[in-house]
Amino acid sequence: MKAYLILEDGTVFEGVNIGSARETVSEIVFNTSMTGYLEVLTDPSYAGQAVVMTYPLIGNYGITPDMESERPWTNGYIVRELSRMPSNFRSEGTIQDFLLKYDIPGIAGIDTRSLTKILRDRGTMNGMITTKKDYCMEEILPRIQSWQMGSVVEQATCREKYVLKGTGKKVALLDLGAKKNIAQSLNQRGCEVTVYPAYTKADEILASRPDGIMLSNGPGDPKDCTEIIAQIRALYESDTPIFAICLGHQLMALATGGKTHKMKYGHRGGNHPVKDLKTGRVYISSQNHGYVVDETQIDPAIAEPAFVNVNDGTNEGLSYIGKRIFTVQFHPEACPGPCDSSYLFDRFLAMMCQNQ
């Protein structure tokens, strides 16, 4: 069955349908990872987005037990070529069956290199995936252009609190759309991790007397999270050590008077270099974000830059003055991606030990 990707500027790509045949409108973004496509599909940070994989052949090793949440979150999936016969001893099925199971529309057989160049040149834009051959451009373009992502953190967070048992430090993890490997990275270090829904009040979290607080990654525009920002401000004003990743990093900046803005096409992939400004050392990081903290709007009395992106100079982390708080834009838990910066969980653990 033929399928069409129609961008909000009127550009049309024709390919073949993979997965669900239903029609969907979403934000079109690209990811440059060569592996880890299942982790990408199941990363809650992609809620409201259709993902273009720039690597040309996807599905080689099938579906493996590497999901980052209970289900996939992408609105759509766009690839150059889909492997129909995966080969891997851990494979439990094919991507096409996986997309069908979770009702995710997809399109294969298009020039993803050309599509990615359009998104890099003109910026991220909305798009529609449809199997309708008789679409009317004059009718659908206004619909595509007016589409908005909405409250995706509310969709992506857990429904109720749960606990990963441990014998070490007690960590409260605020789930803003967390990848499961964040909690696992803490749990593997002995921490007992209590995961809270995104809209949990700060008083409830602090009442449990955690040794540390973790703010997770998540989807959408950070400025839309006004209720959560107010609660993070209350967490900031406590003396509890805090470590934040991605959306959590952005929300902490907003909670302390900083600013964020949308990037032209964002950072999504597993090979982004970030420089630790204290040591001068460069780490290769996994990233997935379309918004960034405006470093020029950070009050130097509140926070100082800790990491910078080597490619474009954007802020990749902050260290908060007089507080046991540090935040990063990239993913130290990787999945998929390198483990260069996993030491940051050890830094967080040491910071909690200082709090004794």
Itemize the secondary structure elements and their pairings.
Layout: E1 2-7, E2 12-19, E3 24-31, H1 37-41, E4 49-53, E5 57-58, E6 76-78, E7 81-82, H2 95-101, E8 105-108, H3 112-122, E9 125-130, H4 137-146, H5 152-156, E10 162-164, E11 170-175, H6 180-187, E12 192-197, H7 202-207, E13 212-215, H8 226-237, E14 242-245, H9 247-255, E15 260-276, E16 282-293, E17 303-309, E18 315-320, E19 325-328, H10 343-354
Parallel strand pairs: 3-4, 4-6, 5-7, 6-8, 11-12, 11-13, 13-14, 14-19
Antiparallel strand pairs: 1-2, 1-9, 2-8, 3-9, 10-12, 15-16, 15-17, 17-18, 18-19
Helix pairs in contact: 8-9
Cα-atom radius of gyration: 20 Å
Helical percentage: 10-25%
Low-pLDDT sequence parts: none
Number of domains: 2
Distance between the termini: 62 Å
Give the overall shape, derived from the CA principal axes. Answer: globular
CATH fold field value of the largest domain: Rossmann fold
Order of helices and strands: EEEHEEEEHEHEHHEEHEHEHEHEEEEEH
Number of DSSP helical runs: 10
CATH architecture of the largest domain: 3-Layer(aba) Sandwich
Largest sheet: 10 strands, mixed
Tell me, what is the CATH class of the largest domain?
Alpha Beta
Beta-strand content = 25-35%
Spatially, the strands of the biggest sheet line up as 10-12-11-13-14-19-18-17-15-16
Number of strands: 19
